[in-house]
Write a structure and sequence with these properties.
12-stranded mixed sheet, 3-stranded antiparallel sheet, 17 strands, flat, binds adenosine-5'-diphosphate, binds magnesium ion, ARM-like, cytoskeleton
Length: 938
């Protein structure tokens, strides 16, 4: 913003610790006011970006010129304007007369047209922002009565927001910037009148003392109400109360102006957390508090509407009003003195001289960011007041403050947090203790168990050790005996050696005697030889004994080694024995449970076995009976086979026509052509009749149920042939032959059987009373079965006629369509299938010339339903509908109805799109063969 440019950037300069002098004014970087250290843990922090030293911040001063009022205008040109503003250079020229003119530079110069908004933004907004950041701040209006101090600072502008003064705007700004969850804002509204502090929110409270904290030097006013603000409405309400209570003495100059100083104190408390690494908390404090220590930034904003700065004599006051003016002036004079002292860097600042200077102690030369708006009137009548006001502003510009941030530990939040943590730790500790107790109990149990097993182990190992000791003793005694034997052997050896020596001596003597007695020489020689032999034997025995003794020694050492090994293996065996014991107990348990379950199973199996045994017995009896029965049947079959073999040979030549020809309704041409065959047939029939009489019809019919396919086929053929004879037809039905044939048709999978059985049924159907019986036996289902399994036109005609009649008579078609309402996919699929079958039968009957006229389906509305729903349902349903439709299209009598129901389109679609070849072909055939359709298509 161009207008605010001169002031706002100054802030950033201040933050870097390079205060900038305005209008040639000298500034100082060190605050003249002595600072007291802050007690821990509350701490003061210098403004950021300042390399650790407090931020010097000069008092900012703006001048605001009030527009001419009626009084000024009334004096007219006699008292012309004594001020001239040069906003572009932020200068003001004060003209004493035509010759003397002085120029002053301010931080901002507001002309009479300046808006309240701009004044707020330039003068107060930077201070409010600073307060929001945690610094103290002061905004103050100074000037002669009637020049617009109250207008600038205290105007409420409740209805017209553009009129709002600094107090309202500052509170508005704070309310919109803070968080109601963590921050709090409260106000006190006071007036200082006749050196007495009065609470404007509670006027009963007067003479409120000003207290200075001995440690921090902080000023407070205990007793003054501090009301927490919630919203702007509340602000208006409180300020209105304050305004109403403000004592305003009328002066000659302006009846609206006041002689009291009005002071609005905004207390702001915002939460903050230490997270920066270069936090200024001491190491000690860090040891006590966690890193994210809850802190509160407490800051205060003072907005002061000072009393008029004019000299007392001019106010025209009288009596006690003079006293009053003195007091008013005492505070103002004192403020002037302090500012002079500060501006001149004087060592003594007389802040204690008045209550105003005590309250504003922090605003001038203190730690607050301070802005001053100096209001002046234009009229030269008040030249001297205007001049002294301007000089006050000039001096104030020289005052430098050292702004500091004040943070305090939020003990309440911290306490709650710590308390929560302690609770959590306590419960965790209790949980751990419980766990430990449980663990200890388990360990004790285990210990007891191991002690028991250890005791057992010791017992068994003791027994083993005793055994081994005994073994050892035995071995030792064996060794001793061996040693003794050895000793004895040695003694004998010695004895033998002595004997040898003696013998040698004797030999020598003998030799001497030899010389003497040659005759005895021979004897001697012999004796000598014998002795030598004996000696040799003795020597050999000695060597033997020696070898024996060394082997005994070896054995002893081996035994000793074995003893050692046995001792170590004893230990090993002990541990193994322990493990084996464990395994044995486990295996025993498992074995016992298995044995138990096996026992149960065995008892179950025994009972089952008994039941099966019973069943087996009865089955065996049955089988016996069956075998006997079968034996009889087989005998009959043999006979039958033997007699039918001739017939079969003939039949293979005449094929199926032979059977049919007997009915008199078959192929007439064939009949006329084969007179020979007829003869042959009558011959065969004679044979068959013979068999029939011989075997008996019940037995032939029983063979229809034979398990041997060959027998079945032969039996069916016999029955078919019998059925061709009028005289047999009723009897076969009476004897249950029709039932047997129908069930064969249903159950058999063999095509020959199907073909011959269908023929047999058709033969039986020749008889009028049989037709009724056939219908009663199985109704439509069996008819449909016959139809699907035979190609014989006669049978098909019969079936089709019966089916048609049945369906029509019973209202079946309508009922079928009615069931569509169920909407169930499977039901609809069945209906479609039924309709398709019906249409197919109908189409066959009509094509064979057995029936004429339009389809029964059309009469009952099926055609319309098919056209409307051809593709609405599942694939299989669609397929059936398409087929039914194609069959209907084959009948020329249906042409008009198909065209009328819009079926041509459907026919075309089927001929092109149907996935079924037969449907497509049928549709194409219908379209190509029917000229009416061809016309429609074109
Ligand atoms: P002080 O509080 O200094 O005695 P006031 O604020 O009461 O003066 O102003 C005196 C009169 O002048 C009031 O009627 C006020 O509305 C009017 N006034 C003051 N300054 C302006 C201004 N800038 N624009 C319009 N009117 C003003
Ligand atoms: Mg006023």
């Amino acid at each position: 913003m161009a207008t605010g440019g001169g002031w706002a950037p100054a802030r950033s300069v201040e933050r870097h610790g390079a205060p900038r002098g305005g209008g040639g004014t000298r500034s100082k970087s060190v605050a003249p006011c002595p600072r007291r250290p802050s007690p821990s843990p509350a701490r003061s922090r210098p403004a950021p970006d300042n390399g650790g030293s407090a931020d010097s911040c000069r008092v900012r001063v703006a001048i605001r010129l009030r527009p001419k009022n009626s009084e000024d205008l009334a004096y007219g040109s006699d008292f012309d304007s004594c001020v001239e503003l040069q906003p572009e250079s932020k200068r003001l020229k004060l003209k004493k007369n035509n010759w003397i003119c002085e120029s002053y530079k301010f931080d901002e110069v507001f002309s009479e047209n300046a808006s309240q908004k701009r004044v707020y933004e330039v003068v107060a907004k930077p201070v409010v922002e600073s307060v929001l950041e945690g610094y103290n701040g002061t905004v103050m209006a100074y000037g002669q009565t009637g020049t617009g101090k109250t207008y600038t600072v205290g105007r409420l502008g409740k209805d017209d927001p553009s009129e709002r003064g600094i107090m309202v705007r500052a509170l508005e700004h704070i309310l919109s910037s803070m968080s109601f969850e963590t921050d709090r804002v409260a106000i006190s509204y006071l007036q200082l009148y006749l050196e007495s502090v009065q609470d404007l929110l509670d006027p009963e409270k007067t003479n409120i003392p000003i207290v200075e904290d001995a440690k921090t030097g902080e000023i407070s006013l205990p007793g003054a109400s501090i009301v927490e603000i919630k919203d702007l409405e509340h602000v208006f309400h409180l300020l209105q109360i304050g305004e109403a209570n403000r004592h305003a003495a009328n002066t000659k100059m302006n009846t609206e102006s006041s002689r009291s100083h009005a002071i609005l104190i905004i207390h702001l408390q915002r939460s903050s957390r230490i997270k920066e690494e270069n936090s200024s908390l001491s190491n000690d404090t860090h040891d006590i508090f966690p890193d994210d220590l809850p802190l509160v930034l407490k800051s205060k904003l003072l907005i002061v509407d000072l009393a008029g700065s004019e000299r007392i004599d001019k106010s025209g006051s009288e009596g006690h009003m003079i006293e009053e003016a003195k007091f008013i002036n005492l505070s103002l004079t004192s403020l002037g003195k302090c500012i002079n002292a500060l501006a001149e860097n004087s060592p003594h600042i007389p802040t204690r001289d008045s209550k105003l200077t005590r309250i504003l102690r922090d605003s001038f030369g203190g730690t607050a960011r301070t802005s001053l708006v100096v209001t002046i009137g234009p009229s030269s009548r008040h030249y001297s007041e205007t001049s002294s006001t301007i000089m006050f502003g000039q001096r104030a510009m020289k005052v430098v403050n050292t702004i500091k941030l004040k943070e305090e530990v939020d003990y309440e939040t911290l306490y709650k947090k710590v308390e929560r943590e302690v609770d959590q730790l306590t419960s965790e500790m209790e949980r751990q203790q419980k766990l430990m107790k449980n663990e200890k109990m388990q360990l004790d149990k285990k210990l007891k168990e191991s002690e028991g097993s250890f005791h057992d182990l010791r017992m068994t190992s003791n027994i083993r050790i005793e055994n081994l000791e005994k073994e050892k003793c035995q071995l030792e005694s064996a060794v001793k005996t061996l040693m003794r034997d050895l000793e004895e052997e040695r003694g004998q050896n010695n004895l033998l050696s002595e004997q040898i020596a003696e013998l040698e001596k004797l030999v020598n003597e003998n030799k001497q005697q030899q010389l003497e007695n040659l005759s005895r020489m021979k004897i001697f020689t012999d004796t000598t030889k014998e002795h030598e032999k004996e000696m040799e034997e003795l020597l050999r025995q000695l060597q033997e004994e020696r070898r024996c003794s060394s082997s005994l020694k070896d054995r002893m050492s081996v035994l000793q080694q074995e003893l050692c090994d046995a001792q170590s293996s004893t230990q090993l065996q002990e541990s193994m024995a322990h493990e084996l014991e464990k395994k044995l107990t486990k295996v025993t348990e498992e074995f016992t449970s298995q044995v138990q379950s096996l026992k149960e199973k065995i008892s179950e199996l025994i009972s089952e076995k008994e039941v099966i045994y019973e069943e087996l017995k009865s089955t065996q009896e049955k089988v016996q009976q069956e075998m006997l029965h079968r034996q009889g049947l087989e005998d009959q079959i043999l006979r039958l086979k033997w007699s039918t073999s001739d017939i079969c040979a003939e039949e293979s030549k005449t094929s199926y026509g032979m059977v049919r020809s007997g009915s008199g309704l078959g192929n007439a041409a064939f009949v006329s052509k084969s007179g020979k065959i007829r003869e042959a047939l009558s011959g065969q029939r004679g044979t068959i009749s013979k068999i029939f009489e011989e075997v008996g019809l019940p037995n032939v019919l029983a063979l229809l149920k034979s398990e041997d396919l060959d027998v079945q086929i032969h039996a069916v053929k016999v029955v078919a042939n019998l059925a061709a004879e009028d005289i047999n037809q009723e009897r076969i039905v009476e004897e249950g032959g029709l039932d047997a044939l129908l069930s064969l048709l249903e159950t058999s999978e063999n095509t020959t059987i199907h073909r011959v059985t269908a023929g047999a049924v058709a033969n039986l159907a020749m008889n009028g009373s049989n037709q009724g019986v056939i219908m009663n036996k199985g109704g439509a289902r069996l008819l449909a079965n016959v139809a699907s399994k035979t190609e014989d036109p006669q049978t098909l005609r019969l079936v089709a006629e019966k089916l048609h009649l049945m369906l029509k008579r019973d209202g079946g078609i309508k009922a079928l369509l009615g069931m569509v309402r169920s909407g169930h996919a499977e039901v609809i699929a069945q209906i479609a299938r039924g309709i398709a079958n019906f249409a197919k039968c109908e189409s066959r009957v009509i094509s064979q010339g057995h029936r004429k006229g339009r389809s029964l389906l059309i009469e009952d509305g099926v055609l319309t339903w098919m056209v409307a729903n051809s593709t609405r349902f599942s694939h299989s349903t669609t397929r059936h509908i398409e087929l039914a439709f194609c069959h209907l299209a084959q009948n020329e009598d249906n042409t008009c109805d198909i065209i009328a129901s819009g079926g041509i389109k459907e026919l075309l679609r089927i001929s092109r799109e149907s996935p079924r070849d037969d449907a497509r072909n049928l549709a194409k055939m219908a379209l190509d063969s029917n000229p009416a359709f061809l016309r429609e298509v074109q």
